[in-house]
Every structure is written in structure tokens, then in C-alpha cells.
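Hi F.,

I've been meaning to write this up properly since the lab meeting, where we talked about keeping a consistent format for the predictions we share between groups. The idea is simple: the sequence comes first, exactly as it goes in, then the C-alpha cells exactly as they come out, then a line or two of notes. No screenshots and no reformatting. I'm using this chain as the first example so we have something concrete to point to.
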Amino acid sequence: MLPVISTLLAFVAGLFRSRASLCLEHLALRHQLAVYQQTVHRPQLRPTDRLFWAWLSRFWTGWQAALTFVQPRTILAWQHQRFRDHWRGLSQRGKPGRPAMAKEVRQLIRDMWQANPTWGAPRIVGELRKLGIDVAKSTVETYRVRPQKPPSPTWKTFLKNHVQDLVALDFFVVPTVRHKVLFVLVILAHH
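Output, unedited:
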């Protein structure tokens, strides 16, 4: 913030100085800037510095000629970023996503599902609208009571239960030394 304030104060002071004095100061500042650019490759800018140049670019047509430490398209990118940040801040006030349902409404949805297991979500939405509660079908489906399914048996349990009924079968051909062909059928009972 300090460089911006000092720049504004220097501008006000420059209004009361002679033209020759301003030209010499301009020459001295240009020389210092040239030396600075040779020693520092990337200057560190504060948000206030960016705001100052964005403001200056709107009110002064010759700002691009005076700009030396960044490119003019960088200043324009800062303006676009400020615009995006401003509107993002306005549109993202509060929490993102749907607003939370009241605990009483969630419990009412669960109670309606339990009391009327044949009702679907559209029917419950209609009943809630009769009570003056406006909710979406997806909201009702989110808060419905889900019946507990028994866990499915594993493959190991299936094999243990059916081992007495399982049979393995294999058929293959074996050539012999005397150039005969033997047909082999193997049947295994697993129990």
C-alpha cells in the first residue's frame, strides 16, 4: 500500500513543480528503472500495486508506453482476474450445494416410508406438499429408510455348502510310443 500512496503524493506534488524539474526527475527515474531491470528479473508485486496499474490503465491512454516491469497484457489479465474474483465472490456467498433439510422434515420422510412401505418417492412428495413442505423427489429418496439386506454368502461358503454335489470332469488325448491314441476321461467327486 505504501508505494501506491507515495506515488499519489508525488503526483500531487508534481502539479506544483516546473516542467524542467519534472523532466529531470523523469530522466533520473528512468535511469534507476533501467538499472533495476538489469538486476531484478521478476519484481514482487502486491495486490495494491496491481490495483494501481489496473486503475491507471482505465484513466490514462499512455499507460502502455510508461509500463516497463510487466507486459501490458499482464495488466489486462489482472483486470479480468479481479472481475472474475468479484463475481465469484458474489455468486458463492454461503455454503455451496443444496441447503440442508430441517431435522423434523427428514424424520417425517423416514416415518412416512416406514408407515407406508408401498408408497414411492413421488407419492411422499405429494403428501408433503399437502402439508406445505416443498421437497424434490431426489431429496425424499435420499432420506428414505433403506431396508437392511442380508449379507450375500461368499464363494467359500457356497463351495462348503455344495461340496457333496460338485463333480469335476476332464477329457483329454494321450499319444503313446507306438503311435496309438488313448482317450482319457477323468471324473472326480470333491467330497
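Notes:
The mean pLDDT is 82.
The radius of gyration is 40 Å.

If this format works for you, I'll send the rest the same way.

G.
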